[in-house]
Design a protein that fits this description.
The complex is a heterodimer of chains A (150) and B (429). Chain A is built from 5 helices and 3 strands; from the N terminus they run αβββαααα. Chain A is of the alpha+beta class. Chain A is globular. Chain B has 429 residues and is of the alpha/beta class. Chain B has 2 domains: 159 residues, Aspartate Aminotransferase, domain 1 (Alpha-Beta Complex), CATH 3.90.1150; 261 residues, 3-Layer(aba) Sandwich (Aspartate Aminotransferase, domain 2), CATH 3.40.640.10. Helix content of chain B is 37%, strand content 18%. Chain B has 14 helices and 19 strands. Classes of the chains: A alpha+beta (150), B alpha/beta (429). At the A-B interface, loops of A face α12 and α14 of B.
């Protein structure tokens, strides 16, 4: 089996996810689902002094959604929120590239393993599930009036 | 079509047919996927189309096409004749007493919505009207298309939705049937053969109970009509639904069959051209069925193609299609039983089941199973199959589903079984 989409990095994160499990303290918790496949993630963010202090999560889903969420936590925890959001945009751009973009390893680190996934449009939503949940939670954390909207 | 019949060496007519001759009618089956022969086992989602169906649609559009029921010119008449002949063919296919009960819709989903919205439009006191205190009963194994429209109807009218639950082995739990279908029940809508579990439900038992209490019955035949002989009179239901794209026809056409006296009494769902009798600025009266339920320009060439698909299936014989699929299903289920770590979700016997077989592979998410099988050229469906409550009932987020049709072979079932083994090897490494 050639398994062109499943890079070793993805399989590693799937089998040994980073930062998994729901933790305190947190400012916002969100629950996102992919209605077409049933994958779901519950995700908490803790932001202080403009820095992503912690992202914790629990969920169920395919290797792509679970590994992508694990990679995302590595990329955003400890970063300034602005910088983390720029990383998130870079990942989104990669996933929308249909395999046409050379990812920047300095920015996306293990996230570059998902370049191949972008050639499978049916799986792009899997790769974005955790990222979208984090973005939503972070936006709510920054704007308390939006809390509890998802 | 009798040339397709296989004759065994002993001179007895086989219950199967020459599958290679059938396959030759489906150009897509000779495609390679990633360099490997396509193994198409996603038929419960949508089937492929034989040349005969494509040719019939093309010939109609190239030589006889026009709008229907509107003009006096030659093409208009020919198109109308073709469209109405398609209705006659579908009526025969379903064993219906006449064509008046055959309504063309865009798919099965529209057919369920048609009935539900029509009931919702009924005047208070009409036999179709629902209100607080009335009940609609479905089953826990419904496709979303035969569930959500009834939920919406209940929300609009204040009626109560009830459902027949499932047993652990994927069948309807009829223990409380008498209380679930009772004097308050106006409609019992249920699936003939489940798209996710493969279960074939006991139509006779459910129809008998519905009749006792005067409830109308609607049978979802989307997964039965393509695969087995169907006779709506023998089934005894009030409404029957099928969709073309799962039975060798193009997408864009489905059928609602209803007992004529019911359809003629039901209020319309969509308003517009073709469904009217007299239109005045102050109000309109409506045509009888089936036109009453076919507002606007209908699905014309797709209906003609659906009739060609009915002819194709009946030319082979639905009993032979069924026998062929049952042999494949037996091979698949027995092959899965021989594998460790693979669990069938649904009946794991051959009794009262169709050709859709859902399963879970321990430790591998269905999406990864589907992707890995695709690398071997094998097309299966993964997900909740538009029956999310079933997944919830059996504690799985999704399933992998293999569903055979008349053009699948034993070798393809074996390829799937080998594929499952190879998926297990890859994901346990």
């Amino acid at each position: 089996m050639s398994q062109s989409m499943y890079q070793e990095i993805i399989l590693d994160h799937y089998k040994h996810p980073h930062h998994k499990g729901l933790r305190d303290p947190y400012d916002v918790e969100v629950h996102h689902v992919n209605p077409t496949c049933g994958d779901e993630v519950t995700l908490r963010v803790h932001v202080a002094d403009g820095v992503v202090q912690d992202v914790s999560y629990d969920g169920q889903g395919c290797s792509i959604s679970q590994a992508s969420t694990s990679v995302m936590t590595d990329l955003v925890i400890g970063k300034q929120v602005d910088e983390a959001l720029r990383t998130s945009e870079a990942f989104l751009e990669l996933m929308q590239s249909r395999g046409q973009l050379e990812p920047d390893e300095d920015v996306l680190e293990d996230g570059i393993a998902f370049a191949g996934v972008s050639r499978y449009p049916a799986r792009v939503k899997c790769a974005l599930l955790g990222w979208m949940a984090w973005k939503d939670a972070t936006a709510q954390a920054a704007d308390p009036t939006r809390r509890g909207t998802s | 079509m009798t040339s397709l019949l296989a004759v065994t060496a002993g001179g007895q007519r086989s219950t199967s047919f020459d599958v290679e001759a059938v396959r030759a009618d489906f150009p897509v089956l000779s495609r390679l996927i990633g360099g490997r022969p396509l193994v198409y086992l996603d038929n419960a989602s949508s089937s492929h189309k034989p040349r005969q169906v494509l040719d019939a649609e093309r010939a109609f559009v190239e030589q006889h096409y026009s709008n229907v029921h509107r003009g006096v010119h030659t093409l208009s008449q020919e198109a109308t004749d073709g469209y109405e002949a398609a209705r006659d063919t579908v009526a025969r296919f379903l064993g219906a007493p006449d064509s008046h009960g055959v309504v063309f819709t865009k798919n099965a989903t529209e057919a369920y919505n048609l009935v539900a919205y029509s009931f919702g439009n009924a005047a208070a006191g009409s036999r179709f009207a629902l209100g607080p205190g009335d009940e609609v009963c479905v089953t826990e194994m419904e496709h979303h298309s035969n569930l959500v429209p009834w939920q919406m109807l209940c929300e609009r009218t204040g009626a109560t939705l009830r459902w027949i639950p499932l047993t652990d082995d994927g069948r309807l739990d009829l223990t409380d049937l008498e209380s679930l279908v009772n004097e308050r029940t106006k409609v019992l809508a249920f699936v003939h053969v489940s798209n996710i579990l493969g279960t074939e439900n006991p139509v006779d038992v459910l129809v008998a109970r519905a009749r006792e209490v005067g409830a109308l019955t609607l049978l979802d035949g989307a997964q039965s009509a393509p695969h087995q002989p169907v006779d709506v009179v023998a089934l005894g239901v009030d409404f029957f639904v099928l969709t073309g794209h799962k039975m060798l026809a193009p997408s864009g056409v489905g059928v609602l069959w209803g007992r004529r006296e019911l359809l003629d009494a039901m209020p319309p769902f969509l308003g517009g051209g073709s469904m009217i009798e007299v239109v005045q600025m102050s109000g309109s009266t409506y045509a009888p069925a089936p036109e009453r339920f076919e507002a606007g320009t209908p699905v014309i060439s797709q209906a003609v193609a659906l009739a060609a698909a009915c002819d194709y299936l009946q030319g082979i014989g639905l009993d032979r299609v069924l026998a062929h699929e049952q042999a494949l299903t037996a091979r698949l289920i027995s092959g899965i039983h021989d594998l460790d770590g693979v669990t069938i979700i649904g009946p794991d016997s051959l009794e009262d089941r169709g050709a859709a077989v859902s399963f879970s592979i321990e430790g591998v998410h269905p999406h990864d199973v589907g992707q890995s099988l695709d690398e071997l050229g094998i097309a299966v469906r993964v997900g909740h199959h538009c029956a999310a409550p079933v997944c919830r009932r059996y504690g799985v987020p999704a399933t992998t589903r293999a569903s055979s049709y008349l053009y699948n072979t034993e070798a393809e079932i074996d390829a799937l079984l080998e594929g499952i083994t190879s998926v297990q090897r890859f994901w346990s490494a």
